[in-house]
Every structure is written in C-alpha cells, then in structure tokens.
Amino acid sequence: MHGSVSLTPGKTCKDCGQSFEITQDDLAFYGQVSPVFNGKKEIIPPPNLCPDCRQQRRLSFCNEFNLYPGICGLCKKRTLTQFSPNSGIPYYCRECWHSDRWDTLLYGRDVDFKRPFFGQLRELKVSVPSLALDVQGELQNCDFVHYAGSSKNSYLIMHADFCEDCMYGYGFKHNRSCVDGFYNLKCELLYDCVDCHSSYGLIHCQDCINCHSSAFLRDCIGCKSCFLCAGLRNKEHCFENEQLSKEEYEKRVQTIDLRSFAQYQKCAARRRKIEKNHPFKEFHGHNTENCSGDYLVNCKDTYASFDCENVERAKFCYQVVTGAKNLYDIYQYGLNFQESLECTISGENSYHLLFTLGGNVSCSDLLYCWYMENSKNCFGCVNMTHKSYCILNKQYTKEEYEHLAPKIIGYMRRTKEWGEFLPSPLSLFGYNKTSAQVYYPLSEKEVHMKGWKWDQEESPAPEVKRTIDAAQLPDNQKDVPDDILNWAIRCEVTGRPFKIQAQELAFYRQNNLPIPRRHWYQRHLDRFHMRNPRRFWKRVCAKCAKGIETTYSPERPETVYCESCYLKEVY
Ligand SMILES: [Zn+2]
Ligand SMILES: [Zn+2]
Ligand SMILES: [Zn+2]
C-alpha cells in the first residue's frame, strides 16, 4: 500500500492550517477533467483546503438520517422529508416532482455579475421545489428510504441500492431480508452485521466473506455453522474457535436462546473478548492492487480512499461502489461513475460531473449543479430532469451556453469561487444534522464560531398510546405481545422513543432474535463505532516489527500484523 510521490511543495490548508501535498498526478487529474468550451480548456486550480477539510465541507451538505413527517407542496399529501419544518425549503413528493404539473425552468434567472455566484446558486436552490427524499430508480413499497434506489419492501435503508425486504441498513447493496446492518453487500438474511459480503444467515458478524448459518463471527471467510469465532478460514462446526463434531456443535448452540436480550448481549461481549486474541490485518478489504486507504474491495490504483468497491484510478473517494473510475474527492456513490471531481451523492451512469451535489442517472458535463437527473451540459442548475444547456435553470442554445459558461468561470476566478466546492454555510442543513457531524464532530459553539448553522429541531416522537422504557421490556422476545406494535420504546441510551414495525417484529420472531432496546439511529451509530476511523497511525507489525500505516491507533488493544505476517497466520 503506497501513494504517489509528491513533487510539488506542500500547501497550507486555508481552513485548518495543516500542510498537505499536491502531487504531479493530482495536477494531471485536475487538467484532465477541466472543462472545455469552444475548444478552450478552463483549467481547474489545485485545491486550497486539505483532503479532510474538503471531505468535511462535502459532508456538511448531506443529511442522511434526520427525516421528518411533512406535506408535499403540490398534492398536499403526507410524505417523509429530509427538510426540517423550520427550514422553509420547498419540496414535492416523488410522484409530483417527476410530473409535468410544474416547470423547473420557470424559476430560471440571469447570472448577476456583481454578486458571488454561490449565493445566487443557493437562492435558486431554496426557491425551486426539491425532492422530499433523494431516491432513484424503481421503488416499490419504499416510502421511508433516503439516498437509495431500485429497491422493494424496504424501510429506513440509506446509501442503499438493489435491496428487497431490508430494514435499518446503511451501505446496503444487493441484499435480501437483511436487518440492522452497516456495509453488507450481496447478502441474505443477515441481522446486526458489519462489513459482511456474499453471506447468508449471519447474526452479529463483522468482516466476514462467504459465510453462512453462523453467529458472532469476526474476520472469517468461507465458514459455515460456526459460533463465536475469529480469524477462521473454511471451517464448519467451530465454537469459540474450537473444532467440534456436528452433534456436539448443535448441542452447544441449542443451549443459547438469542431471543433473550441478555443472552444476545452476553454473546456479543464474548465475541469482543475472543477477537482480541486474534491478529488483525493492517487494513480491511481484499483484492486491492496499488491502493491506500481502508475498507477497499476489488480496487485498483485507488488512494486515500475508504469504503470503496470495484473502483479504479481514484483518490480521496468515500463510499463509492461498482464500476467507478477516474474520480477525485467524491462522497458516495458510484454505479458506473467516471471522470468527476468534488461531488456528493452522485453516479449511476454519470460522467464528467464537477463540483456537483446529487448528479444522478445518466448525467454528464455538469458544473456546480445541485440535484439533477438525466441532464447534460448544465451550469449552476438545481432540481432538474432531462435538461441541457441551462444556466441557473434558464434555457440557452448550445452556442449561447458555450459563450456564457467561460464568462462565468472567468468571473468566478475573480470572486475566488472557481475550483472550490460550495462553502458549508450554504448547506440546507444544520451541521449537526449532517454526516459531517458524524466524522468531524463539533460542539454547537464551534459550529457558530465557524459561521455555520446548528439546527435544534428534532423529528417528532411517534404518536402512540403508550411509551415504555427499554428496561421494562420482557427479556425474551417470546414474552413480548403483538401489542408492542402500538407502543413506543424509549431508547436506553438517548431516551428517544422508537416504534417496532410489523415487518420487523415478524423478522425477529422468524429468526429467534431479541427486541432492540436502542433507537435505530443509535444502533447505526453503535455499528459505526465498531469500525475503524478514517485516520492513519504509524505502528509496527506485532510479529515482524515492520513499520505499517494503519487505522488501528497504537493505544488500541488489538494485535495488528502487516499483511504478509497476517496471511501466514490465517492460511
Ligand atoms: Zn484542512
Ligand atoms: Zn405530491
Ligand atoms: Zn509483519
């Protein structure tokens, strides 16, 4: 794992003051994706912020988890929305937004060459109705999903595509009947799993591939009918890493009733103990070639990137999947996404997007756009589908567009906006409601000192006839009456009340699982904290003492090996 050599002197980040490097490869990439108008290339300058500050700025525009009951501005039907009631942002339900009962071009306006461009873009964004939730593709019975697409019968899945019968998942791709998970790909019947791929029938497993009918595994591959094990390869009937006969294994497992919340917690705690005795590889992932970062799967020439799968030639990319290449500074999501720089939540057959938030479904050559579908050659446009040659939502001819676009770029060079992503104060969301708060937590005071927004408004509590404390729940799920569907449970950590859905209760009953005692968002955070941070530390391999760079900080209890020592140990 290594990056490219720096040939240019370090730069100082205009936000945090840290120095960072810009390599010749970086400069070549900025040149390669710089837009061309009338045969003249408008060069994108190298960034002024360090990679972390750039990522924080992008994340400050993404509200992935705070959803509110609302009313569609057009049909007046109830709809779930990402915009808090006090935000004043107009929004339509998905059906109305895609209908011909309104025209996004009616909001079009001229560029004012006397005021900063970004302010004009934001004014436009808050006047044109947005999609209540960011969803794409065919969705059936998925009224409560966000940043998701092409799924069926699913509930509260985010950063998710091609799922069926899934609930409370983040980073779910091609899953069926998975509940409570973080980064599960091509899985079926998983509960409470983190970073498991191509697996079936797992409970509370982490970093597992091709495993099935197992529970409480960590870092196992190709295992079947195993319980409470770590670091195993192609094993069957192991219990606490001990090989048992089929009969002995079944006898041991039968004594454990995972419908009991106390038993489940005991097993989870036991797993944490067992995995501490087992060496960890310096990074997570597999099939990587010439990469640096963590949680990378099937990636090539991908640097300083995290949570990517099937990505080639990329840098500073986060949560990008499948068929993505030639990308820099992208937060989510991929699906055949190419030649793009500084975007959030973009992809799906999209090409050459620059400084764009939400460029979806066959978009190409967009600059500074803010939620677009199926559109090409647009500059500073918001909330449009099937449009081309528009600037600030005003229609131009191709010739007019190619004449005006470089003029705006020249103007943005003077206002020092060209080459910058939108600044955080222009976000539609309070900093604390965005993914920036998860990765770069700040206090309310710190947020105000930076001139950013903080949002006090909470999603309302569910309307129920009865709310009980989590501790009042019977220990065993079998003792919980159906009437629980009419109650709310007060989260044992945050006190935030949450409801159990009928589909969810059926899943717990069919699979002999306990009733959760934490709000779904707290459970998501719990899983988030089971993963390593997006930060590197220098350590030495605990076996050969070779220097390594790893996301395991030196004070952590895990034993960390370099890749080659690790492979010698487990295979
Ligand atoms: Zn910085
Ligand atoms: Zn509507
Ligand atoms: Zn080693």
Low-confidence runs: 1-6
Alpha-carbon Rg, integer: 25 Å
Q: Beta-strand percentage?
A: 25-35%
Spatial gap, N to C terminus: 21 Å
Mean pLDDT: 96
Coarse structural class: alpha/beta
Give structural notes.
With 571 residues, this protein is an alpha/beta fold. Among the domains are: 154-281; 466-528, no CATH class; 537-570, no CATH class. Helix content is 19%, strand content 35%. Strands 22, 23, 24, 25, 26, 27, 28, 29, 30, 31, 32 and 33 form a twelve-stranded mixed sheet that branches. Strands 9, 10, 11, 12, 13, 14, 15, 16, 17 and 18 form a ten-stranded parallel sheet that branches. A three-stranded mixed sheet has the order 34-35-36, with no helix packed on it. Strand 32 (388-391) and strand 33 (394-395) form a beta hairpin. The longest helix is centred in the C-terminal third of the chain and has 17 residues, at 398-414. It starts with 10 loop residues before the first strand and ends with a helix. The site of one zinc ion has 8 residues, from helix 3.
Q: Concise description?
A:
Strands 22, 23, 24, 25, 26, 27, 28, 29, 30, 31, 32 and 33 form a twelve-stranded mixed beta sheet that branches. Strands 9, 10, 11, 12, 13, 14, 15, 16, 17 and 18 form a ten-stranded parallel beta sheet that branches. Strands 34-35-36 form a three-stranded mixed beta sheet, with no helix packed on it. It is built from twelve helices and 39 strands. By secondary structure, it is α/β, with parallel strands linked by helices.
